[in-house]
């Protein structure tokens, strides 16, 4: 199945609420297969359908490199417990990460690919990924959760605090960032639009500050 381009901020589809899946037909199954292939190419943890331009309530998550990628259809968080501070990135913000507040554990329900209804309780990375990806389905981005006075940092090539922000390396030369992006996943226009939007929003740490 083909790899689908990943939309980058500030694409307007990332701010739209996805519609529930009413029937698991060939269109939805093909979408899931493409999303799994795209997530594999990105070496990421999670991907929401919004991020590949489809406003359907579908997410895929790989909880670890050794685990299978699981599709969650019409996922919904039913309960949250506790709070924790985590470093998080996003495939729609390649090359950047920020400090956000997430739950310690969550309970959720969803449909699997066969239409079965599933209830789970998750913690650690899976809990974080479920909150992150379900936020996407509601038009909410991880930058909306940035801690007060916090800004995004450019990701060091050797620094991988969360697999949402894989497949982009950042070089610092003359105090400028030069991004090397995966052309199967991103367009130069999308990457340039992202950098311009983040500059305008004034939520990027200075290079010197980020390296402190």
Description:
The chain has 212 residues and is of the alpha+beta class. The protein has helices at residues 26-42, 124-137, 188-201, 207-210, and strands at 46-48, 58-61, 70-81, 84-89, 96-102, 105-111, 117-123, 153-154, 168-173, 176-181. 35% of the residues are buried. It contains four helices and ten strands; from the N terminus they run αβββββββαβββαα. The longest helix is centred in the N-terminal third of the chain and has 17 residues, at 26-42.
Summed up:
The protein is of the alpha+beta class. It has 4 helices and 10 strands; from the N terminus they run αβββββββαβββαα. Mean pLDDT is 85; it is low at 157-179 and 207-212.
Shape, per Cα inertia axes: globular
Oligomer: single chain
- The overall pLDDT, averaged over residues, is 85
Return the domain count: 1
Number of strands: 10
Main sheet attributes: strand count, strand direction, barrel closure: 5 strands, antiparallel
Q: What name does CATH use for the topology?
A: Peptide Deformylase
- SSE pattern, N- to C-terminal: HEEEEEEEHEEEHH
Task: Flag low-confidence runs.
Answer: 157-179, 207-212
- Percent of residues in helices comes to 10-25%
Number of helices: 4
Give me the Rg, rounded: 17 Å
Proportion of residues in β-strands:
25-35%
What is the CATH class name? Answer: Alpha Beta
Structural class: alpha+beta
Distance between the terminal alpha carbons, to the nearest Å? 43 Å
What is the CATH superfamily classification?
Peptide deformylase
Q: Which architecture would the CATH scheme give at its second level? A: Alpha-Beta Complex
Query: What is the strand arrangement across the widest sheet?
Result: 1-2-3-6-7
